[in-house]
Protein 1
Amino acid sequence: MQIQDPELIERLGKRLRRIEGQVRGIESMLSDGRECREIIQQLSAIQSALHSFSRNLLEEYAINCLLPPEDQPINRRAQEQNLRELIDLLNKAP
């Protein structure tokens, strides 16, 4: 399934663009000869932002993509398969 909520897509896109800007900032910091401590602080901020983005995306995936639509009955076998898929995705995450 795909994310259907345009507001969510926009929110996630803004977050990714912010992260992209932070990565570009690190590139500039390296070119400008900034202190290692400052660069590491920025890296930490990027890692935190990516982690937050991942959590938000996984939450939306679990709620909107793994659950059947409200008008469909719950199929235990399909639900189990969906949960196993989610667990596999989580196990691949660092």
Protein 2
Amino acid sequence: MFIEIITPDQSLFSGEAISVKFPGTGGKFETLNNHANIISSLQSGTIVVNTKEGNKEFEITGGIVEFLKNKIIVLA
């Protein structure tokens, strides 16, 4: 699946991922390939992107995530 993590200032990450863990406002959750479509709010915490090269971590202060047709867009 493809993920983009975008802030008002810059693009933090753009690329392929195996799985992604999010700090949702209702609790932490993880998305995998072919996950059901979802839109969720995010709280302060760490997004962990699992790639072929290893895990990449991004600290956020909140935002929104959309998962649609194996593409994730995070506005943080």
